[in-house]
Amino acid sequence: MKTQTTTLLKALRDAGCGSRRELAEAVKAGRVAVNGTTAESFSAAITPADVITLDSRPVVTAESARVYLLLNKPLGVITTTEDPQGRPTVIDLLPPDWQQKRLFPVGRLDENTTGLIILTNDGELTNRLTHPRYGVEKEYLVGIDRSLNSEDFEKIKSGGLELDDGPASPARISPVNAAPFNYRISIHEGRKRIVRRLFAALGHQVRVLRRIRVGSLELGNLKEGNWRQLTPLELRRLEAVPRRPGRAGGRYQSASGDRPRNPRSR
User: Fold this and answer.
1) What does 140-183 look like in DSSP terms, one character per residue?
2) Residue 256, pLDDT above cutoff 60
3) pTM to 2 decimals?
4) Are 254 and 126 in contact (CB under 8 A)?
5) Tens-place pLDDT, residues 136-157
6) Residue 3: is its pLDDT beyond 80?
7) Do residues 84 and 242 touch, judged by C-beta distance below 8 A?
8) 60: closest CA among 111, 121, 105, 1?
9) Cβ distance 257 to 126 under 8 Å?
10) What are phi and psi of 234, to 5 degrees?
11) Which of 42, 155, 212, 253 could connect to 160 by a Cys-Cys bridge, CB 3.0–4.6 Å?
């Protein structure tokens, strides 16, 4: 994975150690050290492996504290960091020490959808996985009330469905024999409840829905309610997602940033 670098001043600012002026003065006064050596410039390059101290106290930087988790969301769990109605959230599924790491979900699954959710505190990766310019593909298993006909298949594959907020983009779909699921669908869009709305536009009701893949990351056999850390290889593959040709922007921009409160749902 490519080494991420920042400046010493930015690392200190991001860690909440003080204002730009205060920290610049601290560096000049010799109060800041990097790997045991007194820092001479606040513009020095810093990597996640570097140990920074301020007044001899270790500084936990945003780079060194980044976390990447894969969680299999169960039914009835809300994909947000907190819920005013007191419903269980994806953060509640983590042990107390992980709950303190200021993680947030990448995108959103509605209360009645299960499956793959990424939890992280990396806003840059969140933007890469949710912004329309990258068009990261999401794959779902879906169980609907009755079989699709050939015309339904063509409308989904060609993008020939008109929704209340504009036409749907083309999607890939195929039948599966994995009760209670009967179809597999892959989409690039991030609009709210897009999978359910696609089938509703065809007059079908979605009875069960599970997300099994985001980009190159697969849910695998992780049990509902369980979580694990991403491997270095999985993270490298996610970070390598290229920008889609001709997609400088997009009509539907998913929420991203440091702590999104109301990400879009599927």
Assistant:
1) EEEEESS---HHHHHHHHHT--EETTEEPPP-EEEEEEETTEEE
2) no
3) 0.71
4) no
5) 999 999 999 999 999 999 999 9
6) no
7) no
8) 121
9) yes
10) -60, -40
11) 155
